[in-house]
Amino acid sequence: MAKSRNNLLIFIITIFFSATNVFGYCSEPIAPEPPGVYTKPTKPLVPFCVNEIMKTHTCDDWEISSYNSELASYRSDIDFYVEKLKNYISEAENFLNETVAYAKCEISTLE
User: Fold this and answer.
1) pLDDT given for residue 15 in this prediction
2) Which residues lie across from 50 on neighbouring strands?
């Protein structure tokens, strides 16, 4: 009786580990958000009191300070935007790998 129980247990374990595609479940990957949902920062306009051709200005100190502050904010926004795009690239690469694994899993369940 114990021998037949051991044989049954060995049989069940063997079936479980050798027929993974019978018990397999293929999980569909989820695509990352496309970068189109991110808002690209816009560069601040040069104040009217700056002559870019002559490289001179007639601005007050507060106008120059305000513009420099806007530029610093713009650079920060650009850095954040670039980081989001880099994260998207990484997520897209992971999605590609998961898609290939999913397709292979689906094929293995059919064989």
Assistant:
1) 47
2) 57
Longest dimension (CA), the chain: 102
Q: List the structure tokens of 30.
A: 């989820």
Domain ranges of the chain: 27-110
Question: Considering the entire predicted model, what is its pTM?
Answer: 0.62
pLDDT tens-place string over residues 15-70: 444 444 445 689 999 999 887 777 899 999 999 999 889 989 999 999 999 999 99
HSE at residue 75, side-chain half, CA atoms within 13 A, is 6
Rounded to whole angstroms, how far apart are CA atoms 15 and 85?
46
40-75 CB burial, b ≥16 within 10 A, e <16: ebeeeeeeeebeeeeeebeeeeeeeeebeeeeeeee
Whether 50 and 59 have beta carbons less than 8 Å apart is answered as yes
Residue listed under structure tokens 């989001």: 84
